[in-house]
Amino acid sequence: MDNKLDIVVFGATGFTGKRTIPYLHKLCEEDGRQLKWGIAGRSEEKLKRVLGEYAQKLGADSLNSTPIIIADVADELSILAMAQKTKIVLNCCGPYQLYGEVVVKCCAMTGTHYVDVTGETHFQDIMLSRYGNTAEEKGVYIVHGCGMDSMGVEMPMNFITKSFQGVLNSVEIFMHRLEDQTGTGSALNFGTWSSIVHALSDLKSVWASKRATSLPKMSPSCSLRFPFSRNASIGIPNKRILPFPSPDEDVIIRSQSYFYENGGKRPIQVRHYYLLDSWKSILKLLFMGMITIIFSQFSCGRKLLLKYPKVFSGGHFDHESPNEEVVENTKICMYFYGKGWSNKKDSQFNQPPNKSILGKIDIVNPAYGFTCLAVVLSAIIILT
């Protein structure tokens, strides 16, 4: 056991994977920790190149001696061997719907902890049903969504819940995305676009999965706000709102379901909205969204979406690597508007909510900076 590495990053040469290296380098030796970590992927040459790149960036020559493991999702035995050499696998190799299962399977079989950054909730549900019992028997964790999806929402939800003095009935999440207006180029990696396209390709199963995780009806119901309306509750009445089918909402519902079934806690209703500046922005987003959903249902449509990501995403995704300046200056502002009762008695007699709470979180570089930090910390927390 002592010969094992503590953490192995699989997919370490990818756009997300390699950005975990600075956080691992810093955090694995912080606060007296002495965690041993390594990187894994298909190409030894590319893995060495990534280590050299960050050794130079960070002024840390020791990174060049970081352990390297050769593993390929097309070779299950190599994934099995990788899992046997570490206590936890940090998987950054997506789309997970295509490449994730073999890694989860091997980790469950070998009694190895597993974390990833997927926002593909249908994939998460499948992995839970297939390997959840095995992982539980082995005493290990399989934790999905440890990046911006869905830590960026689950953590503030937890904070709002703990901060609300009383009984919380509902939380409405309003998200506003700000990009660097001076830089040019895309802000998001093609791998993320590929994950979205493949996740949407099986809408029937996705909706079935949503229905499978349901909560009891609570009163009063948190009604969906009228699309395109304005909302003064969060202090920015100049923005228009658009209901947004975020995967984060599915993860929150899953968490609320767990708390209800295992702790008897009253479920908190959740609604998710996107904040936009104008009708033009709304119509553009709706049009791109509908085209993406429709095209993703057909093989030829998916080929077009993957071949021309810049066209279909309005420039947000591209085959070329994202512009570092744009990535670093992209910011997401999220508002969490909760309503409930100041005491338990009012909540039991269907009285209208008499108390509210408003929280705000700003995340700079959410897709890659926050994501990489969050998944590394998730792995460290599990180990320590």
UniProtKB/TrEMBL annotation:
Transmembrane parts of this sequence: 363-383
GO biological process: glycolipid biosynthetic process
Residue span(s) of domain Saccharopine dehydrogenase NADP binding: 7-142
Pfam families: Sacchrp_dh_NADP (PF03435)
Keywords, ordered alphabetically: Membrane, Transmembrane, Transmembrane helix
SUPFAM superfamilies attached to this UniProt entry: NAD(P)-binding Rossmann-fold domains
CC terms in the record's Gene Ontology section: lipid droplet; mitochondrion; plasma membrane
The keyword Heme appears for this protein: no
InterPro entries: NAD(P)-bd_dom_sf, Saccharopine_DH-like_oxidrdct, Sacchrp_dh_NADP-bd
Family: Belongs to the saccharopine dehydrogenase family.
PANTHER family, per the entry: SACCHAROPINE DEHYDROGENASE-LIKE OXIDOREDUCTASE
Protein name per its UniProtKB record: Saccharopine dehydrogenase NADP binding domain-containing protein
